[in-house]
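Budget justification, computational time. The allocation requested in the original proposal was used primarily to generate structure tokens for proteins on the priority list. As evidence of use, we reproduce two of the resulting records. The first is shown immediately below.
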Amino acid sequence: MTNSSKTTDDKLEQQVHPRRWLALAVILLPILLNSLNTYMIQVALPLIQHSLNASFSDAQLIVTCFSLSLSITLIVSGKLGDIYGRRRLLLIGVSGFTLMALLSGVTTSPTLLIAIRMVQGLAAALIQPQVLSMMQINYLPREKGIVFSIYGALIGFGFAFGLTLGGLLVHWNVFDLGWRTVFLFNVPFGLLVLLCLPLLPESRGNRAQKIDWTGTVFIMSALFLLVYPLSEGQKQGWPQWVWGSLLLSLLLLLAFVIVEIRKQKRGGTPLVDLTIFKQHLFGVGMLSVILIYLSMFSFFFILTYYLQFGLHLDAQATSLAFLPLGCGFFLTSLFSSRVVSRWGMAVLRIGALVTSSCCFLFILLLQIDAVQVLDLPFLALLLVYGLGLGLVTTPLTRVVLGTVPAKDAGTGSGLFNTVMYLANSLGVALISILFSTMLGQSLDCASLLDYVRAFSVSMTACGGLAFAAFMCLCFLRDPQ
């Protein structure tokens, strides 16, 4: 190492926070809070629907409205943290998230729960960008590898055990609260995070920057008008307003692109610097993200409904079915980035191909035995599915963002997270349309044969999306 390099490292050492490793534990707590919340609700969703006398589309909206409001707010929340302070935005986000968790746990109306979940998504959107920014600025370059590895493993942990914990909480039925415990669990957890936040140093970015509110309104309106009609349309028989909303969504997206390009040409600060898509590989990478996450979230949703409505399993049994899947995901999440560094993009391609193959093998097993899904063959297949999922999703962030120059890293990161959560909303909305159409009956009236048919067709779609992601990944070069 040269003397100049040593001098630079010494200066960086003096600038970073001396208690940064203690701070890392505090920084990551809100991410675990959000991750557990997301996956616990997946298992409890059919019970929530039954308890509140909600429709199938209402159940979709409980999931999609949270992800939708989160995805569209992520675009601006990072800039808000730069301007007003990242710890301050984190405090507001965790406070709002915890309050909405409490309200979700006591509500008795599906409509009110949907509205609360939408607000909770807005609060969650204030959390993630601040966490990523703090991880970026509080650690030395040589430390960031382990920091982001811990971050990825924590996401894997939340996925692996959130699904199981949700089922156990409902089964334990503490204080006879039933499904409400999956929301109320977040209240003491959120209060713990709030108590720890003062340990974090405050930080800001460029306070002089401005937020493109025109672009924000256009993109938020467009995405909402795209997802909401897909969830409501089938329940209402696809009235004309649904098609009008979808058309208006496309027009607003076009208007957003025009406004952003004009602002860029005039030297302004657009909400999204669309020139990033001149990086061809970034566009291909983002398409891979959309496809694999559409497949993943669709799979989680329909598997839960098949197990609880088709086979009449309780929440605990459902969580046991998800346990091998989550464990497989967690295991490969721990070392996937290291393996990618050695073997390159082949690892992600194998992960996507394994995920796709498992979907089609699941259909084959259903034709042999559609009932005993907790037997060894099914559980082994779910374990392999989780292993493949961890290989492709966990390192995908680094690989996709590695295709853009450093100056576009902020824009790329914001778009990646937005697209990931938007895929959650679209995946649930679209697969629900396919599932209920193939079911041909209401959830309560459909026979097991109806559920097998609907689940098999839906799994074909999930497998096809994962295979399409594999094809896209074939066009991405190995990260340097």
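The second record produced under the same allocation is shown here.
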Amino acid sequence: MSSTIWSVDEHLEDILTAVQPLEPIELQLPEAQGCVLVEDVVVEIALPPFDNSSMDGYAVRVADVAGATEEFPAVLTVIGDIAAGDAGLLGGQRVGPGEAARIMTGAPLPTGAEAVIPVEWTDGGTGEGPAAAMRAHRDAPEGARGEVRVHRPVEARAHVRDRGSDVRPGDLALRAGSVVGPPQIGLLAAIGRSTVKVRPRPRVVVISTGSELVQPGEELTGGQIYDSNSFALTAAARDAGAIAYRVGAVTDDAETLRATIEDQLIRADIVVTTGGVSVGAYDVVKEALSSVGDEDEPGSGIDFRKLAMQPGKPQGFGSIGPEHTPLLALPGNPVSSYVSFELFVRPAIRTLMGLPDVNRPTARATLVSDKALSSPAGKRQFLRGTYDAQAGTVTPVGGSGSHLIAALAQADALIVLPEDVTSAEPGTDTEVILIR
């Protein structure tokens, strides 16, 4: 274990220098969700690919409905139906003078037509008053023929989606570095892309340690507690964009832990352990991993160090296995573990994804509290708080104890007290890290 006291920034820099973005791969669209594009996507087809109707109604010539009113409607001859996906377009027939074609939303505008009249502006071919809807073709096929009375005029291109009005060939659809979310997948599919080149979502394996840990749902006996860290950190890894695997708590046995980690390397781009990194007699992570890589795996190994921070003083970082898989060893106290994840593991995950901005957003806020907040000299303290963006204030939640998980569940920010601050009075301007 290193005797040097590391700063928060030094530890994070060491991690981000060692962690490199994952190699790009080509993925089908459903599998690309949450991944980061590594190349620009250029449009190859117009979207929409043809002029089409934005309404259910009638495709008409503008001159034929000029001056139309409900009292003096324009009476047009209906020459047929055009449905979405219809390539026949009335068998090549044009919409000529005095004619109209029934047209459905998304259907291509027929030759000769200049605009679309919504069905509500007509009698729907019934010979009665204004129609509320268009009669289904299967129920009233005669509606595709006969006459329609139009009650209002229309301007050219009204209710028509022009070809290429969304994107045109050669347009930049998505930039490299974009995260592929549902809207991006929709756009890629709409322009005909079935695959995309991305950096895959990192695979994160989370392992908690401690013989006292019991899985939620089981009965507690003397000296036991429920394993919350592995659940919280697995969820946090997914929230950061990773594919996360939670491993059940490992007992305080060095050989068992090392074997468990080695078994998990096949599905890990990064391994996160929690617990067993301090100076106790049963700190199994240090015992299991302190000598990893010295002989069998040149270039790998875990360095256990002390950081000038509270909570989260004991930390470990390095690599393990033939692929030099990064491993971050976090403290076992729930708040220490979660704060450490936010400060160090989340940026590592985002770096593996190839994202340019890997840290949580920060803000300045006025401290609102009943009394001054104390902080140990020479340490950067992270307190839980609730942030009011509109008021520009932050209010502490709970105390500074690293076991107070209930307060963490209520917090949406971390209040940062720098190393040179030992007391922060109410009204102090503070930095906050937004964690939601």
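A brief technical remark on that second record: The longest helix spans residues 334-353.
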